[in-house]
Amino acid sequence: MIGDLIDGPLWYFSAAVFLLGVLWRVFEILRAGVARDLAPPRAGGSAGAVRALFSRFLPRRSLVKTGKLQLIAGYMFHLGLFALLFFAAPHVDFLEERVTGFGWTPLPHWAFIVASEVAFAGLLLLLLYRLMHPVTRLLSSADEYIGSVLVFVVMLTGCLALARSFEVLRLVHLFSAELLLVYFPFSNLMHAFTFVISRSYTGANMARKGVNA
Amino acid sequence: MNEDFDQGLEVLNGQIDARVSSYFSSCVHCGLCAEACLFYTETGDPKYTPIYKLEPMRRLWFQRHTLRGKVAKRLGLSKEVTRQDFADWEELVYDSCTMCGRCSMVCPVGNDIVYMIRREREGFSKAGYAPEGMKAATHRALTIGSPMGVTLKTLRAVLVHVEKSVGRPVPIDLKGVDYMALFSSMEIVNFPEYIESLSRIFDAAGVSWTISSEAFEATNSGIQIGNREAAAELVGRVVNAAEKLGVKYVISPECGHAYMAIRWEGPNLIGRQYGFEVVHILELLDQLRSSGRLKLKDKTDTPLTLHDPCQIVRRGGVIDQPRNLLNEVASRFVEMKDHGDMNWCCGGGGGVSANDRAEPLRLKVFQRKKRQIEELGVDTMVTMCANCRIILEEGLEHYEMDTEVKMKSLTDMLAEHLEPSPG
Ligand code: SF4
Ligand code: SF4
Question: In chain B, what residues touch A191 (CB-CB under 8 Å)?
Fold first, then answer.
């Protein structure tokens, strides 16, 4: 009975909150607008926006040494999570069935194990760093911790569900994912979408001045 | 300037545009921006983390521009921004930020942090929470015409010496010439050689130019303190003078913030494009070099390096020109490890040099530049900003390095290597 709820209405509810919430947040950002820049530019902004969108996936050379731990942990977590989210076999089936209507080649089992270990290690390292470094400790609020813990729980239940192929575990995993979906638009997890806007604004503005940002 | 906390808060709120909203929404509080900021790296104090300097603005954004913030405020879960917050953050917003923009280059989500600091200052200055030194400089700029109190009389006195030295008059208020030159007060008072160098180079290259007696000051204290009206008034004076003389170009001098003010912020402050173009002096000199009008003889073999003024290079886009020019006159030019758009600031930009109480902190963070110079082991440093130059000279003196390392202006250096014109 609870299983049906989690598998049915709750899933649609959380997916709707997620979708509408994300759209609302994007609207909230864009509605204030940006004044047109009247200074004659050296170059157009669009190319700069696209460049920054991709170039910021890589760190600046002078930051590689000082930000080493965070950069490595950040890559591990994000790449691992991306692989799990879109290429774990049950996810491919789930997305095909409920979202896209088509499927794609999933990760083989061993790659799934590697991806989940990398993602777990990355997430834990990031969380430890956040708790221990004076700068991140000062900056962090409950939001970051709740987000990290939720993602951790979703990943953990997902791995358990796959390892045991046990229906209850699958439902626990789905339920925690639904919680995450509902929490997502109201949190800093939104950076997964808004980074496109912020990088583009900065890239365009700096390109107009003749600087590759 | 009338100051009022509530108005300041409203002004701050008005500064939150889509860019600011996207930046606060994207910040993952990773702290990487701290590693790019000399105020953090040289003190180790987490309060100097760039994004933390924006905490009052972030809270206002959260409470007024997001649904969840509005709810949180209703429920008492998000604290109001108070006078005490402004008082507590004043040092972070002004004393510990030179607006160098280095943090903006490293943020993984692409936040232009200094864009927000520039805007945050608008709210702080309106609310009356700005350093006295900067308030006084802005007042002098508006009433006397220069943040350092330099008047036309002072300039004329300096020009008498320049004319004697170069052997011909310096053109004032000439109509219909191509270029109108601006100066920073720092140049007029401390480095009048710059005016002399300009005069010699322009003579040799056949550049028609003038100085306006109505607007010769290029710096803009209004931008540094964050007062749009004052900033627009100061830009407006230059624009009026240039349009009255009918020049095609206005030359921004060896001053970083002046370039930012007149080239990039100016049109937005007065709400229209100018009837002329703005060029930085080094852009112009590089154009003259590449077109063969600026002829340089011999190269010095003294090992030297270049200090990039943040507003000209990283925030202004004049990156290659100084290097092209320096390579023409120096055979042993070496770059610092972090240079160009990732250069480290001298510590005196963004109005910090006009803020007396910030001096101990400024000298402390100068250690970053000190290490950069020591790593290279050169004994001459060239730059193209009079403010950077003063700050660097003070820093070198403070750390007793002034006997080993000398500062030079790039324009002066080019003038020294000028090929004498045949006539
Ligand atoms: S580097 Fe960017 S994302 Fe990280 S704390 Fe600073 S502003 Fe936020
Ligand atoms: S602009 Fe420069 S001084 Fe200001 S916070 Fe960023 S890195 Fe620090």
Answer: 25-28, 109
